[in-house]
Predict the structure.
Amino acid sequence: MSDDTLRWVWRGVAGAVLVIGWLFILIVNNFRFSAPVVVIALAYLAIIAMVINLWRVGTAAVAPEQEGEEAWVRPIGPRTELEKEKKTLLKAIKEAEFDHAMGKLSKADADEMIRTYRARAIEVIKELDRLDAGGNEGARAEIQREVQARLALEKKSKKKNAPAEAEKVTS
């Protein structure tokens, strides 16, 4: 089911609960429309609206990185996933810089984290640019690029660890 269909299903369920509740109120009061019956029906409407809003707030609390209208929809497709990841990475860079400024992180730790986040952010931005240029070559090309990127990262980490291992052997 798509998100839009699911949204309409939930709205239908909420409407049905509202109508059933109003019918119950009317049945209990023998279908007499008096001021207290109207007030009780409006109070029931307020309770249903409150439950719906609390549900929406709860779902937004589960995904605090999203703001505004984005909090109510899930990312659709690779582009929105990449945009979400880009926002998260940029936010992580700012938080690492802030933590370093507050003295929570050492200079070395902050630089390492920021370098890692920036490298991934650059990859994500390049991928977004490729999608903007219409470079949708298919799954095989995407897998090939991912494998090449991982092999390049492995080579970098091996080169970085090689001097440390050489020191251990000579000591």
In short: The mean pLDDT is 82. The helical segments are 3-28, 35-62, 77-102, 107-132, 139-170.
